[in-house]
Write a structure and sequence with these properties.
Layout: E1 2-6, H1 20-34, E2 38-42, E3 52-54, H2 67-86, E4 91-94, H3 98-102, E5 109-114, H4 120-126, E6 133-136, H5 139-142, E7 150-152, E8 172-175, H6 184-194, E9 198-201, H7 209-216, E10 225-229, H8 233-242, E11 245-248, H9 258-265, E12 270-273, H10 278-281, E13 288-291, H11 294-302, H12 308-318, H13 321-336, E14 344-345, E15 350-351
Parallel strand pairs: 1-2, 1-4, 2-3, 4-5, 5-6, 6-7, 8-9, 8-11, 9-10, 11-12, 12-13
Antiparallel strand pairs: 14-15
Helix pairs in contact: 1-13, 6-11
């Protein structure tokens, strides 16, 4: 089997710093290769994914300079990638909505992983493409949509690249885009109320520069509240592995939240507000705590009593990249070999187990 996986052309696969979708694509492509499946990634020339990589744009561009320019670049890249993949791939796996429009012109099986929250305009757009196999990354996300062919496959991470640390240091961690919907300002409030230092890592995009300057920077003193900038894998391992807990005070219906399983892979519990996929990812008292308000999060971090070993074991059992890859292979098989016997079932669509 040969699978063409199409990323946007802006961020390398895997990402050098920020890029949840690009990290997912790298994990999936490399997992497929380990299973003996040919994976072709369409991204940009700076990608270092351990799979065949094809591109027409040699350099990354992040953040993008103008929306109009980005739309043209994405459309051009995606049209080329779909045309190229249709000539040699059994499956074309999309990760952006733009690619759906080109599915009209080729006779190929398409999978589309939906990485965004509910957007009415996009839901209406999807109505024109009912034959696509849509993969939702959480049940919470899936329940809000109405496409005829949907199934949920949770993200996974390669556990071997994350190092669990038993002896935690007396600080909390926040990793993510520095944006109001991510709740960076709330992480600071929790840290201050709990009396526990906070280390913040993440990208400040131009659209949120004012938010950073007015609500985050004034609290950063380099000692109690520390901002360390964007974090690569090594920095994540150190920051998450040594932290008492990851704060996840989410303010939107996040479809998944990859950083939660990265923290748990490091043996670090997640203290989160309820929303989006949180209840599917965090198990109360085992891998962290799900709270109803900021004060509950403060109490949770002040009374943490969760062993790193238990957190890591929970992550290994539920969110390994191997388990994720197996589910995608099962889906691919169901599309290219639809006569296989059905031995597994999802809520909305039956798929066979991987061969």
């Amino acid at each position: 089997m040969r699978v063409g996986i199409i990323a946007a052309p802006f961020i390398p696969v895997p990402p050098k710093l920020y890029g949840g979708t690009e990290l997912f694509i790298a994990h999936l492509a490399e997992g497929l290769v380990r299973r003996g499946i040919e994976a072709v990634v369409y991204s940009n020339g700076e990608s270092e994914v351990k799979a065949e990589n094809r591109y027409i744009y040699s350099t990354m561009e992040w953040p993008v300079h103008t929306d109009v320019q980005a739309q043209f670049k994405d459309a051009n890249h995606t049209a080329w990638a779909v045309h190229d993949a249709a000539a040699s791939c059994d499956i074309i796996h999309l990760n952006n909505a733009t690619g759906l429009t080109f599915s009209r012109f080729v006779n190929s099986a398409f999978v589309y992983t939906v990485h965004h929250p509910k957007v009415n305009a996009l839901s209406e757009f999807y109505r024109f493409y009912p034959d696509i196999s849509y993969v939702m990354i959480s049940d919470a996300q899936r329940r809000l949509e109405a496409m005829p062919y949907m199934l949920t496959i949770h993200h996974g991470v390669p556990m071997g690249t994350y190092t669990p640390i038993e002896d935690k240091r007396p600080y909390l961690a926040f990793i993510g885009r520095i944006a109001p919907i991510k709740g960076t300002h709330l992480a600071i409030e929790i840290s201050q109320k709990a009396g526990i230092p906070l280390k913040i890592a993440g990208e400040v995009q131009p659209m949120f520069q004012e938010y950073f300057d007015t609500q985050i920077r004034p609290h950063v003193d380099g000692t109690f509240i520390e901002y360390i900038g964007p974090a690569d894998l090594a920095a994540k391992n150190e920051l998450l592995g040594n932290a008492m807990a990851l704060l996840f005070p989410i303010q939107w219906e996040e479809p998944f939240g990859l950083v939660m399983i990265e923290a748990m892979a490091c043996g670090t519990p997640v203290v989160a507000l309820e929303g989006g996929s949180v209840r599917e990812v965090v198990k109360n008292g085992v891998s962290g705590w799900i709270c109803g308000c900021i004060d509950e999060m403060v109490e949770a971090v002040q009374t943490l009593n969760i062993q790193a070993r238990i957190v890591r074991e929970y992550a290994q059992a539920n969110f390994s990249v191997d388990a994720m890859v197996e589910q995608y292979i099962a889906l691919y098989d169901s599309l290219v070999r639809p006569t296989l016997p059905i031995v597994a079932q999802t809520f909305d669509r039956q798929i066979p187990a991987a061969a």
